[in-house]
What does this fold into?
Amino acid sequence: MNDSLPVLNAAEVRVLSSLVEKQITTPDYYPLSLNALTNACNQLTNRDPVVAYDESTVVRAVDGLREKRLATLFAGAESRVAKYKHTLTDTVLLTPAEVALLCILMLRGPQTTGELRTRAERLFRFDTLAEVEETLSALAAREPQPFVLRLPRQPGMKEPRHCHLLSGPVESPATEEPAAACGAVAPAVRADDERIGKLEQELGAIRHELAQLQQQFAEFRKQFE
It folds into this structure.
């Protein structure tokens, strides 16, 4: 087992956490088919943010996780449909309590200790808030890679929140909203955003040039009418 994990993009985080969740909450239907995994990613409950991934997005995320040894393709003798399962706990040593908190943080973003205790109930029962704090501290103190960070308390909030670090270091947590600070901060995600923005600018320029050409052509035709 390794003590660290590679940086994950937003889709990989959602796919991995959905696999972890379903293994615990619906073991009879696990591993998951592509359709079931897509539905799990796109759930309207217990998700923040809510997404609308198509199957190609999920497949790309699964392929990324497989390359990082965090997911695998399962082909059972009784199933003709390819199914997927996570290998998170094969890659890193985690207690059931740590798995539960990490999963909830990946599924729902930054949360307070009280929110984590309540929302993790489906995955693991914490009897006290102190147990949650102890588990968070263990995740934050991992070497060489902390998995969790305690964010500075935001103005107007009574309690600080915690976020996962599987998408890379948090940027300026003291000045950003928690959800933004712990969102898609992986370099790969930022690169995708920049690439898409550049393509949109180029497309806008092409559309502008096309509109000008259409106008010029219309004026040219009028000379022969």
